[in-house]
Amino acid sequence: MASISSLGIGSGLDLNGLLDQLYVAERSKLEPIGQQIESQQVKISAYGELKGALSAFHDATQALNENALYQSLSTSISGDAVQAAADGEASPGRYDVSVDTLATAGSIATQRVDGLDTVLTEADSELNLTFADAELNQRVTIEAGSTLQDVRDAINADPQAAVNASVINDGSGYRLALMSKQSGSDATLLATDFAEMASDATLTDVTIAQAGQNATFSVNGISIESATNQVDDAIQGVVLDLQSTGQSSLLVEEDTQPAREGIDSFITAYNELKSTAGRLTAFNGEEGQAGELIGDSTVRIIESRLRSDLGNELGGEEGYQRLDELGISLSVDGRLELDEQKLDAALAESPAAVGAFFLGADEADGLAGRLDATLSQLLDEDGALESAVSGAENRIESLGDRYQLMEQRIDTTIARYQTQFGQLDAMLAQMNQTSAYLTQQLGMLDAQMGGGMSGQ
């Protein structure tokens, strides 16, 4: 509000100062509304913090609802003959692997050509590639005027040619080297008609061929043959990568570490949620400070539903039925406490039984599935948390309307005061003028009366 500098000139009163004081007094009526708006904004921020902690617990809960978590296997190997990896279909056990030969790819080096610029074909022709497995046989089109490098490029550009081609200098000339893309005896390249195709060039020496071979090895004394060194069907659920000839022992064991880490994350996430809720609803009597959500019903609803899910039995007939049977219990302050030895013993005895407790028969009716359903409802757009945020936003909007209306009323009131003060200033100015006139007239009258008396 801008002060009117002319106020008070006529009366001599500090009407501008008085009007400013009235303006401040009227504006103070807005403070309670502003404080309420700020309170609701703080609540929305607190709800966001609570939602973050709730979402983190939801993520940890969903991780416990994964079947693979309780079927993890680890492999340990002694010896350099093989490397291995196991999946959920593998069976724990010891496997002795003896590698006799590794799978290799066959190759052929063609007859020697004197120079790289030697033209091999004057007309379009074909290079026939013949394999041990006739299904791999292929004819590669070679254009007229092709050199050895052109033949190489044509072979490599043909997606159906089951070889990789290169040019090798053997010290006396150049050869086309063809290596089978696949290892094993069936993928061996037996022959080419390179000499017939390159009939326009002078070729020397002979074709050099090296046959491909299968890998031969044994697992626990059982002989196995494979066209490749990566074998995924010798031991169910185990991929063997043959590295060298020799002996290796493979030990496949149940790995409880992923399940243990998942449960630890679950406990940590819940306790952090509990700490966040506790801080937001706490009251510090010594400092007189209250949490942003103290007494908030939404927090009570969330805590009550989660406490119910965590504390109730599953209701099954077999296996674990309560968290405390796994060494996880609710403490007096509502946090989860862990008996590490009890949990480790349960995982060591039967990871599947621990998994059944969290997963349930159909990955929906275990503890993790039950919590997942509850948390999904709480975090849903129509859930308790979003409803609370929407309620706070609606109150802010309503309070904003009240604030605006109150400002308009204050401006109207101050405008009325200003008009009245202007009228008062004018009236007092007129009264001052009248008073001065009367004082002047009375002075003159007094002077006249005094002069007359002295003449007598």
UniProtKB/TrEMBL annotation:
Iron-sulfur listed as a keyword: no
Pfam families assigned: Flagellin_IN, FliD_C, FliD_N
Keyword Transcription regulation: no
Domain Flagellar hook-associated protein 2 N-terminal: 11-105
Keywords: Bacterial flagellum, Cell projection, Cilium, Coiled coil, Flagellum, Secreted
Primary localisation category: secreted
Compartments where located: Secreted; Bacterial flagellum
UniProt subunit comment: Homopentamer.
Family, per entry: Belongs to the FliD family.
PANTHER family the UniProt entry points to: FLAGELLAR CAP/ASSEMBLY PROTEIN FLID, FLAGELLAR HOOK-ASSOCIATED PROTEIN 2
Protein name as annotated: Flagellar hook-associated protein 2
Organism (species): Billgrantia ethanolica
